[in-house]
Amino acid sequence: MTPLHDVIINKKTTINPIWIMRQAGRYLPEFREIRKNNPNFIELCLNHKLSSEITLQPIKRFDLDAAIIFSDILMIPYGLKQKVEFKKNFGPMLGNLNITEMSKIDEIDFVERIYPVYKAIKSVSLKMELKNKNTIGFVGAPWTLLVYMINQQSPKKNIKKNFFEDDYLINRILLIIERFLKIHIKNQVENGANVIQIFDSWAGLLEERDYPNYIYTPTLNLVNYVKSLEIPVICFPREIKNYKEFCEIVKPDALNIDYNVDPLMISKNIKIPVQGGLDPKILLTDKDNLKKQVLKYLDIFKDHPYVFNLGHGILPETDPKMVECLIKTVRDY
Ligand code: 1CP
Q1: In the structure, what pLDDT confidence band is assigned to residue 6 with cuts at 50, 70 and 90?
Q2: CA 79, 127, 13, 319 torsion: positive or negative?
């Protein structure tokens, strides 16, 4: 058993494994060095040699408990032949969605378009197994992917006014997304991913009355699918209003919390293992404050199975020395 499995599956409370959302990324000089010569982000994700190297960079530097594969949730629309580009200082830009064309894509076409992701997972997971550590595969939740695919860019605070206008179209896209998410999960697991995280980064945009249709039902289908593969699944429904209800309905193995949620309330109300929570901005302050805030989470979750992580992705301006300090504080606890 790896430390991460011990917490998520065996619900042990004696260790706090640690990994960091967006751990492979722009705050690392060794990543920026590779990125400099590879301006096309999707191409970089599809270069299995470089993407496995990038995935392992934070493991080499910090000896974290899990690797998360350097890829993106938007590889799904890319695999479905919707154009996906990442513009500097803007974020993702997607092309028009052609539902007729998309409906014709089969499993073989899709896997062929993104197979380097699976190749990277294979080589990373072989190395991680030797270290008795996990390889985390991931997907965007159906709702979050739907948002990007229809909105064609980051929704930031809002989605287009007429977003829900065409119910029929939305439901057709959701069915396609769900089918290919399962294919993507299956291929990640077959190539060595031994934990799956589902990112619902834009759950917070919905009204509570829309949770059943767009969050609970589609996410539950995926969670059940991951469980059928006998792999643990962590859900991150960012900024959702009712975490307890989410856990009761969707029943993930573990819950990742964001930094806006009160950890004390979570430790009292949530029975399953918890992951994350610390505000990534704390890493931009000083070491004393960082230690204080890290200890706050560790103290609150000391009798709860808890995986240390942040409440959202690490910020590009983070000093790697602060990450070292964070990890040391967790390991020394
Ligand atoms: O160098 C660069 O400019 C690329 C920045 C970058 C990176 C490093 C993007 C663009 N994606 C990634 C990798 C990535 N994305 C990982 C890799 C593994 C790791 O954690 O180290 C993961 C898990 C993701 C997941 C992802 N992509 C999410 C879910 C988590 C979250 O941040 O909420 C989302 C919403 C995306 C879309 C995306 N991709 C990239 C950006 C900048 C964004 C967000 C844009 C937005 O605000 O809408």
Answers
A1: very high
A2: negative
Q: Which of 18, 19, 21, 22 to probe ligand 1 with, by most ligand atoms within 8 A of CB?
A: 22
First to last CA, the chain: 21
Which residue's alpha carbon is nearest to atom 22 within ligand 1?
Answer: 72
Q: Helix axis angle, 243-250 relative to 217-228, nearest 10°?
A: 50
Residues 6 or more apart from 310 whose CB is under 8 A from it? Answer: 20, 21, 259, 276, 277, 278, 279, 280, 283
Distance from C-alpha of 170 to C-alpha of 150, rounded to nearest angstrom: 9
Closest CA to 32 of 330, 307, 317: 317
Atom 11 (ligand 1): residue with closest C-alpha? 72
Identify the band that residue 126 occupies on the pLDDT scale cut at 50, 70 and 90: very high
Q: What is the CATH number of the domain that holds 263?
A: 3.20.20.210
Q: Which two tokens stand for residue 305?
A: 């199975």
Q: Which atom of ligand 1 is nearest to the CA of 26?
A: 1
As for how many domains the chain has, the answer is 1
- CA separation for the pair 120, 115 (Å, rounded): 9
Tokens matching residue 283? 């890493």
Q: Please tell me the predicted confidence (pLDDT) of residue 147.
A: 96
Quote the domain boundaries for residue 193. Answer: 3-332
What's the pLDDT at 157?
65
CA–centroid distance for 244 within its chain: 20
pLDDT, tens digit (0-9, with 9 covering 90-100), for 250-261 = 999 999 999 999
| Alpha-carbon radius of gyration of the chain | 19
